[in-house]
Each structure stands twice: as C-alpha cells, then as structure tokens.
Amino acid sequence: MPAYILRKLLLTIPNILGIVIITFILFKVVAPDPARLYAGKQKSEAQLQSIRHEMQIDKPWWVQLWNIIRFKFAPSMRYKESFWSLFARKAPISLAIQLPVFIIELGIQLVLAVYVAARRGRFQDHVITFLAVFSMSVPALSIYLGAQELFAGHWKIFPVAGWDQHFFIAIHFAALPILVSVLGGWGSGTRFYRTIVLEEISSDYVRTAKAKGVGEAEILLTHVMRNIMIPVVTNTVAVLPLLFTGALLLERLFQIPGFGGLLVDAIQQQDQLLLMAIVYVTAIIYCLMLVVTDICYALVDPRVVLQ
Amino acid sequence: MERAERPRSLHRDAWDRLRKSPTTILCLAVAIIYVLVGLSTFSPKFDEKIEKSLSADKTYAPPALWEVAPDGHKQLSPARWFGLDFQGHSVFWGTLYGTRVALLITVITTIMVTVIGTTLGIVSGYFGGWVDDVIVWLFSTISSIPWLLLVIAIAYVVQDANPSLKQFFGGVATVIIALGLTDWVSLCRLIRGEVLKLRDRDFIVAARAIGLGHGRIIFRHILPNTVHIIIITASLGAVGYMQVEVILAFLGLGVTNKPSWGRMIDDARLELLRGHWWELAAATGAIFIICWALNVLGDSLRDALDPRLRGVQ
Question: Which residues of chain A are within 8 Å of residue B177 when distances are taken between CB atoms?
C-alpha cells in the first residue's frame, strides 16, 4: 500500500507541472497587463510601474514562475488583502452551504437510484428518470432564479438573499440556497448511480443471494450497496475540494460572501492576479484530491493495488 | 431448418433500433427543427424582422397573440407572442436569434472538439511510444483542472487579451475557444482506449500483414470503428455547451451584445423583481426542450451503438 501511494504521488508530479505551465501561459503570456487593467488608460508609465511593483509583476518571469510554484501571491489590489487570508475568511462560508448540499444530494441520489433500479421499467422508474432528465436539462441559473422568485419573492417563506455571522441567522439565510442547489443538482448523479446499481443487480452474486432466499431489501442494502461504494467514492472524493470553492452563481444570487462569489468578483472587476491565484490553487487541490480518490479506491477495492 | 441471416452493419442495426422508439424519433425531430430554425435565422430577412420588431414606444408587455394598432385594428403579431423585454425588444424574435447563437456555438465547438480529440486519440493509441506519453500527459493535466474553472479562465483571458473577439459575433468566439480547447479531453481519452483495443485485433494485424500503410489503416479501418464514440460524445456534449453558455453570460464572459439564451436569462434577473417572467420563461424553455431532446437522444444512441451496454438499461 505505501508503495502504491508513493507511485500515485510521483505520477502526479507531471500533472502539477502541467497545471503550473497552463496557469503561467494563460495569465502571464496570453492575458493583458494587469496593471493597465487596474489603472485604466489615463495613467503615466511611471505610475503603471509603481502599480506593477505593488502587484509584484515587475520581476523577471522566472521569479514570477517561482512565486506561483510556491504559492506566493501578491495581495489583491481591490481587497487589499492577501489571497490566503481571503481564502481563510471565505472558504468556510462556502463550505457551510456546500457541505449540507453535498450530503443531502448524495443521500437522495443513492436512495432514489436503488429504489428506481429495483423497480426497473415500472411507473416509478419512468417518472423519476423523467424528472432527473428534467433537472439536467433546465439551466441551473433558471432554477435558482425561479425558485428565488417563488419561495422568497412570492410566497415569502425564505429571505430573498443575505448572510449573517451569527449561526442561527445564517441557517435562516442558507436554507433556500441549499434547497435550490439540491433541486438543480440531483439529476445526473441519480441516473449515473441507477446504471451502476442495475449492473450490480444483474451480477452473479445477487442471483446467488436470491437463490438462497435472502430478502430483496437485504440484498439491496447490504450486498449491492457495498459494491457500489467504489463508483460512489471515485465520484465524490474528487469533488470535495470544490465544496470549499463554492458555487459561482448561487453565491452571487443569494449574496453569500463565500469563495465562489469571490471568483465572480475577480472576473467582473478584472482582478486578474486574484483570479489566477484562485484557478491555480483550486486546480492543485483538485489534482491532489484525485490522488486521494485513487487511494480511497484502493482501500475500498483491494484488487486495485495488485494490478 | 434455420436460415443464416445476412450480417448487418452496426450502424444499420443501430438505426433499426432507434427507429422503433417513438420518443427517440420525437427527440430527433426536435433537434432537426432547432437546426432548421437556427439556419433560417441566418437569412438577411430575419435581421430585418429583428430591427422592425423593436417597439420604441413601449417597454415590457406581457405575451399576447394580437397587436392592437392605433386605429383599434387587431393584427396577429408573432413579435408579441412571448412579450417584450425592458428595451422593447420582442422576446419571440430574441429567442429565435438565440437559436442561431446556440447553433453556432454547438456546431463549431463540436467540430473543434471532434477534430482535436479524434486526431490526438488515434495518434496516441495507434503509434504509442513518446507521442502517446505526451498526449496522455496533456489530457490528464487538463482533466485534473476542474472543467468549468478552466473554461472560465480561458474565456476571461482570451476576451481581455483580445477585445476584438468581443466584436466578432458578440463574443461567440470567446465561448467557442474556451469550450473547444478544453472539452476534447474526454473524447480523446475514450478514442485512445478504443484504438488501443482495436490495434491488436485480427483485422488490423491482417491489414498490416498485407502491407497497408498507416494512413490507410487509420482512415479505412480504425476511424470507422470509433465513429459511434464521436456521435455519442457530440450529442451529450452539446447539452453541456448550452448550459455553460448561460454561466458565461452570467459572468459577462459570453455573448454580450447579441440576444443569446444565456444573456436573456441573465437579463431576466432584474426583470423578475418587477414580476416580468416571460423572458426567463422563453429562454429557459428554449434551452430545456433542446437539452431534454439531446439527453434522451444521446442515451438512445449509446444504447443503440454500444452493444456492450445493451441489456443494462
């Protein structure tokens, strides 16, 4: 097992290098001068130079590359705050929305997938499959806008938007975004897991269990559930870091001061260096989580290590 | 006595399967109608219609079948069917124009993705060696960055670096470049896997043994056996492109000065506060119908073209 982990980690190094190269090409070669974007057209060359100095982009390119590699980013010009302090402040707020969404969504997806797979081809299967395709086909933004208008604007069950430091008031504000997010996101996972459960149900060990007289509920919950953990793990572990980065549209619409909203701000205010930091750090964390996924995969399925 | 059946090709067999399902035929019809509507909006006559439909005296009007002229005369008016937006633009014509934008984005991106993905996938799977290593490194690196984030980053960088792109068809080029440069990855991975399997099959070995060149083996024997992957990926990919267009429009990175479905939904954000729901409904409906059709069609295609999955669904 340690050898397996070490090998996986070593194999990630080229990918991390690739992420560094892509980030550098996108934001240092293709993108325009961030100082000019920040200052506007009126500034003189001397003023631009001092802005560049503040942004730490007046250094030679290899120094800038080295700074990216060791996660050293200049403080954001608009927020007057370093990337890491922004991250520490905003990521927990995103997590407070995304973690409940993730848990509720995964629960709904697994329960529905098993339920529907056990009733393949019947009425319930058709209805739930139809609804799943429905939720996949409507743009998320439309679902968010419609639900916000109905639940908050029209029926006034929830507040329209907002956030608060206090835990209980925050729950009050978070309820609708969580509900809406689940509403828009449950579909594709449900269909994916349904296919997997169906594959398992048609396998030999299930037939053996049936032949021995094991009840349907027990087959589904103990035998099948255990075996579908492999795709579930590969499908979920990798998205865990995305829980920190939050949802772009959701946080902007409901005015949640999270990390996803920060990304939207960075784009709309052309805060290029902040955007670069967000993209780079998220990509690196995601890449490392893919290794963790592989390790979890090996833990759940011992055959993987042997290959 | 059993009679030997004539062997049927995979595509013939797939088409026979698809034809039997009314839902699939319906979805195919919907997709064809969208393409025809999209194509018809390229005519100069349509641009005239859009110009004319602008009613300067009025902003916001709820959907209505008729337009009442000043003299009290009622006239059937398609421009009013979906109402007017905050600038007095007809939502109906805007939605149709959005079909043009969506068609452009989907078709050009799909061509880009197919060309890049298929070429790299076949080259990497067929030749192996260091070429394979480089291509595998490239697509595993790109797929180890969250897709949406990469699309947004490319769209941002491309648009800011080259403001003239905004002029070209109102920012459609930005969307196409961002999607086309990233989405080939999954297709490339699938095709490489398929080619790796095909490479050692008897018919390829035989083709090599009788002295066929690489080009002929690839185009005559390998490419036709990967077409089903391309078709399935393209039909499901289009759904993703339309959904991403909405997100890019929301971020101000997509289509900016032409009515696209994403921009209409984004505009509707402010209109909803005043209770004007029709622009949101029209654009959402347009996206929903085609995405639903493509989702169902993609699944049917996969069932029909990929015999290994048969019996699972």
Answer: none
Residue B190 lies in a domain: yes
Last residue of a domain, one of A40, A69, A98: A69
Bridge partners of B90?
B84
Do A140 and A40 share a structural domain? no
| Whole-number pLDDT of residue B41 | 83
Q: Could you report the predicted ipTM of this complex, rounded to two decimals?
A: 0.88
Does residue B157 belong to the interface with chain A, where contact is any CB pair within 8 Å?
yes
How many structural domains compose chain A? Answer: 2
User: Which member of A18, A139, A202 has the closest CB to residue B243?
Assistant: A139
Domain annotation covers residue A285: no
B265 and A139: CB-CB below 8 Å?
A: yes
Tell me the pLDDT tens digit for each residue of A154-205.
887 788 777 877 777 778 788 888 998 998 888 888 988 988 888 888 888 8
Report pTM: 0.88
Cα–Cα dist B139/B302, whole Å: 23
Are A125 and A258 contained in the same domain?
A: yes
A290: left (phi over 0), alpha (psi -120 to 50) or beta: alpha
**Domain contains A290:** no
Give the least confident one: A12-16, B10-14, B95-99.
B10-14
For residue B279, the chain A residue with the least C-alpha distance is: A142
Closest-approach residue (CA) in chain B for A276: B153
Does residue B72 surpass a pLDDT of 80?
A: no
Residue B245: both structure tokens together: 């267009």
* Structural domain containing residue A58: 2-69
Nearest-CB residue to B161 (from A30, A138, A253): A30
Contacts of B283 in chain A (CB under 8 A): 142
B312 chain-A contacts, CB cut-off 8 A: 195, 198-199, 202
Q: Kindly state whether residue B2 falls inside one of the protein's structural domains.
A: no
Locus of tokens 């390229």: B42
Position B15 in a domain: yes
Residue B3 lies inside a defined structural domain of this protein: no
* CA angle B295–B298–B300, rounded 5-degree value: 110
How far is it, in rounded angstroms, from Cα B228 to Cα A103?
36
Q: Report the CATH number that the domain containing residue B292 is assigned in CATH.
A: 1.10.3720.10
Residues of chain A with C-beta less than 8 angstroms from the C-beta of B181: none
Q: How many domains does chain B have?
A: 1
Give residue-wise pLDDT tens across range A95-134. 888 899 999 999 999 999 989 988 888 899 999 999 999 9
For residue A146, give how far its alpha carbon lies from the nearest alpha carbon of chain B (Å): 9
Let me know if residue A279 belongs to a domain.
Answer: no
A227 lies in some domain: yes
The residue of chain B nearest to residue A20, with distances taken between CA atoms, is: B141
Beta bridge partners of B84: B61, B90
B284 vs A: CB within 8 A: yes
